[in-house]
Design brief:
The complex is a heterodimer of chains A (114) and B (140).
Chain A: H1 3-24, H2 32-54, H3 60-78, H4 102-107
Chain B: E1 3-9, E2 12-17, H1 21-44, H2 53-74, H3 79-97, H4 121-126
Antiparallel strand pairs in B: 1-2
The chains are: A mainly alpha (114), B mainly alpha (140).
């Protein structure tokens, strides 16, 4: 995998995690969508680490820098504060913004990377 | 009338009376800006800091928050709730004003530094606002 591909993924995940962090201070903290997003992003970060491990990057410093970024993302994903018992906040009658979901849309920002 | 929880903005749980769609409109907008601004702050740590899309997006957010503030002031939202929401808008405006607003810099795609394709994180972050589909904007 090329360095650029890994860098784009790191850029995207950094933004997604910023948005999800904000969602944890919202009613989304008790929402299954945030719980699911945390799991999904955690898997993305883990896969990124495996991709980096398998990548043929000659420069050791570049590889180490990317690993540092991935480690930071991994910690940010783990640190997302989600309630122990979650339910969809729409179903609970608390989230009244329509059919869509901020959290899902935030994770979908990764789809902007082509 | 029964009160229902409908959000948590800047650490405060927000309640409205059932059926108060005008207040709900403003609350939902602020819920979205809370997430959008967090995404933009993350972008500010990225190469976007030296580009033009992030400042352009920030300017849009500032303009829209200003419009939202005017609409809230002119609305029939009850005074106490209005003051509370206005202070939250001011807080978001202060956050937005701390982000880059100079659009004269070169787009990072044009500078061949951003190579993620035709998409743009700044635009995508702003589009999170479009996730709000209910209730419709009140006629003010």
């Amino acid at each position: 995998m090329q360095t650029e591909v890994l860098e784009n993924q790191i850029r995207g995940l950094n933004i997604v995690l910023g948005a999800l962090q904000a969602a944890t201070s919202e009613i989304c903290k008790s929402c299954i969508n945030l719980e699911g997003a945390k799991t999904k992003v955690g898997k993305m970060v883990k896969k990124l680490g495996m991709d980096l491990h398998a990548a043929s990057i000659c420069c050791e410093k570049t590889k180490a820098d990317l690993q540092t970024h991935i480690d930071s993302l991994s910690k940010a994903a783990e640190d997302l504060q989600v309630a122990e018992e979650c339910e969809c906040q729409k179903t609970a009658g608390n989230c009244k913004l329509g059919a869509e979901c901020f959290v899902t849309a935030a994770v979908d920002l990764m789809k902007l990377i082509q | 009338m029964a009160k229902a929880r409908c959000g948590r903005i800047l650490g405060d749980d927000i309640y409205i009376e059932e059926g108060d769609t005008t207040t709900l409109y403003f609350i939902n907008q602020l819920r979205a800006y809370q997430v959008v601004l967090a995404a933009l702050k993350a972008l500010d740590q990225d190469i976007c800091h030296n580009g033009c899309s992030l400042p352009s997006t920030v300017n849009k957010v500032i303009k829209r928050l200003g419009k939202l503030k005017n609409e809230l002031e002119a609305s029939d939202v009850v005074a106490e709730k209005k003051e509370s929401l206005l202070s939250k808008i001011d807080s978001f405006l202060a956050d937005a004003n701390r982000l880059p607003q100079d659009t004269s810099q070169t787009c990072r795609k044009s500078a061949r530094e951003c190579i993620m394709g035709s998409g743009c994180f700044a635009t995508g972050a702003l589009n999170l606002i479009n996730e709000i589909t209910e209730p419709e904007a009140p006629k003010i």
